[in-house]
Amino acid sequence: MPTITYVAFDGTRHEIDAPTGSTVMENAVRNGVPGIEAECGGACACATCHVYVDEAWTEKVGPPEAMEEDMLDFGYDVRPNSRLSCQIQVTDELDGLVVSVPERQG
Ligand code: FES
To answer: pLDDT tens across 34-81, in order?
Structure first.
């Protein structure tokens, strides 16, 4: 099973086994990673699941779709490597993925 590392804003690392087919957001919420609120439950309608994809992984994860990009405008401190974690599906290729949680959501 792929492992994803979430780096909380205080630097704490949460290493989580993430089933393929689930989303990066779902695994954060299920495991209580602090700072991921995911108010809309994964519908790409709230931007409170914002994360920064580690630079080493941005190519593999890929860019956001147009709808996600529009929603990201509502994110806090959005950067070139920002993604909404509900829109990143876990695949075997993403084993080892590292994402960081922003200081706050929205
Ligand atoms: S959970 Fe709402 S946009 Fe991701």
So the answer is: 999 999 999 999 999 999 999 999 999 999 999 999 999 999 999 999
Residue 105 lies in a domain: no
Ligand 1 centroid vs 41 CA: distance in angstroms? 6
Give residues with Cβ within 8 angstroms of 20, minimum separation 6: 1, 2, 90, 91, 92
| pTM score | 0.96
Residue 106 belongs to a domain: no
Q: Which residue has the tokens 């876990």?
A: 90
Please give all residues whose beta carbon lies within 6 A of any atom in ligand 1, as ranges.
Answer: 25, 38-40, 42-49, 71, 84, 86
Q: Which residue's CA is the closest to the ligand 1 atom numbered 3?
A: 44
